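Q: Okay, next protein. This is NAD(+) diphosphatase from Uliginosibacterium paludis. I've checked the sequence twice, so it should be correct. Can you predict the 3D structure?
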Amino acid sequence: MWPENFIPLFQATPAASVAGHEFAFADDALILNHDGSLPDTATLEALGPARADFLFGRAGESGCRARRWDAPALPEKLQALNLRACHGVLQEGQWFLAARAKQLLGWDLASRHCGACGTPTGTAPGEPAKLCPACGHRHYPQIAPAVMCLVRRGDRLLLARSPHFAPGMFSALAGFVEAGESVEGCLHREVFEETGIRITNLRWFASQPWPFPQSLMLAFHADYAGGHITPQADEIEAADWFGVDALPGLPSPVSIASRLISDGIERIRKGLP
Ligand SMILES: [Zn+2]
């Protein structure tokens, strides 16, 4: 989660004198010092004008600034890391701020012209939005909700793999919420589409923003209600029930899938529902 003292905002073109936390990106990769700390403002100024540059919140007295350069030549003292690889490098609160910065940078670049009439947009007063001066359309940052479901049948868990997973890796089932669909309806639909399994007894677990590019993952436990495993063609390469002592390769700890599956394993081992 964000640090407790963080307040989100969106303010374009901060004054050059703004002091604070620098979340700077080289394309989609976060720029860090080699010890994993955030770079200082003076070091980043040497990279020249950024393509995107705004404040995205305050942490106490400090502003949190997002900037993005396209393919910058970084000095030796800096590195650029994919945000997934930063999870164990940054403190957790900082990782979630970096996730917000990355998501808003993508939105800022994609909303510079009005999607309704094509006119260049400006910043809307008083809210994090772009405003079209010609037609009045407001463009808010988009968030795409997605669900994840770990299905349990007695002391076994339903895990599946899609063709793009690393070799040997299985995970919980997941998919995007369709327009006009409820989260609960999406859980039932995705699990049935991907595996032919019916579920019941949905139980909320946790959520995690996933800024690749703009998802919000909502994770649930559920129980088996019926059906035989029938993997969805083209989407699911394999799916099976796994006992907790005979598990396949699992997702990396950066993902909420890892936390959800760990929780499911622990519950089975402790005899909890
Ligand atoms: Zn417009």
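A: Here is a summary of the prediction. The chain has two domains: 6-110, 144-270. The two ends are 26 Å apart (CA to CA).
Q: Noted. On to the next one.
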